[in-house]
Automatic annotation (TrEMBL):
CDD domains: PoNe_Nuclease
Family affiliation: Belongs to the UPF0102 family.
Pfam families noted in UniProt: UPF0102 (PF02021)
Superkingdom, taxonomy of origin: Bacteria
Gene source species: Roseburia intestinalis L1-82
Protein name, UniProt field: UPF0102 protein RIL182_03014
Record-level Gene Ontology MF annotations: nucleic acid binding
Matching InterPro entries: Restrct_endonuc-II-like, tRNA_endonuc-like_dom_sf, UPF0102_YraN-like
């Protein structure tokens, strides 16, 4: 089911001018749902879905622990794809509620290896 919402978020991102580079980048440290380019930034996007907001906003599920995991995986992506650590990057969240996508740009900062 998550794949369908990731594709839905990806289609929305395309309408916002994002160039999707990859879905579901995985390594031993974890996964990033979508990697894209947006206005000179390499963007790592976490997609979170909730049927409705009665159980909270989907973005609330991107906890500090999840942010650290995404940051580690992003570092690995940069290393393995020939990108320098000076590559401008951003971490966005695509919060899906029902059939509505809300994009939160720069949802969190790089968390490093805390």
């Amino acid at each position: 089911m998550g794949t369908a919402y990731e594709k839905m978020a990806g289609e929305y991102l395309k309408t916002q001018g994002y160039e999707i580079l990859q879905y579901n980048f995985r390594c031993r440290m974890g996964e990033i749902d979508i990697i894209a380019k947006d206005h000179g930034y390499l963007v790592f996007i976490e997609v979170k879905y909730r049927r409705d907001k009665s159980c909270g906003h989907p973005a609330e599920a991107v906890t500090p622990r999840k942010q650290r995991t995404i940051s580690k995986v992003a570092s690995y992506y940069l290393l393995t794809h020939g990108c320098g650590m000076d590559t401008p990057c951003r971490f966005d969240v695509a919060a899906v509620s029902g059939d509505e996508v809300e994009l939160i740009k720069n949802a969190f900062e790089y968390q490093g290896y805390l």
